[in-house]
Design a protein that fits this description.
The chain is built from three helices and no strands. Helix 1 packs across helix 3 (about 55-70). The relative contact order is 0.22. It has about 70 residues and is an all-alpha fold. The chain has a single domain (about 5-70), classed as Orthogonal Bundle (Arc Repressor Mutant, subunit A).
Length: about 70
C-alpha cells in the first residue's frame, strides 16, 4: 500500500468515502462517536495513531458523512 492510499485523521473526506463503502447501509443519524471511532480505526487503509482522535475530529467526520449522504 502506498502512502497515498493510507488514511490519516486529516483526510476526512477520504475517510467518509471509505466508511460509505464499508458501512453504506448505516443510518448516519444513529451512529455514535465511539462506534464511528471503532469503524475508522478498523478501516484496512487507516494508518494514523488512533490516540490522536478527539471529539472535534470525530464530529467533523460524522458531519461530513451526514452531508455526503444527504446529497445523494
Amino acid at each position: 500500500m502506498s502512502d497515498e492510499d493510507k488514511l490519516f485523521w486529516d483526510a476526512t473526506y477520504e475517510i467518509v468515502l471509505s466508511l460509505m463503502a464499508t458501512h453504506g447501509d448505516a443510518d448516519v443519524e444513529t451512529v455514535g462517536i465511539q462506534q464511528l471511532y471503532q469503524w475508522i480505526i478498523a478501516l484496512p487503509n487507516f494508518a494514523d495513531d488512533p490516540e490522536l482522535a478527539n471529539d472535534s475530529i470525530l464530529n467533523g467526520i460524522l458531519r461530513e458523512w451526514y452531508e455526503e449522504t444527504a446529497s445523494l
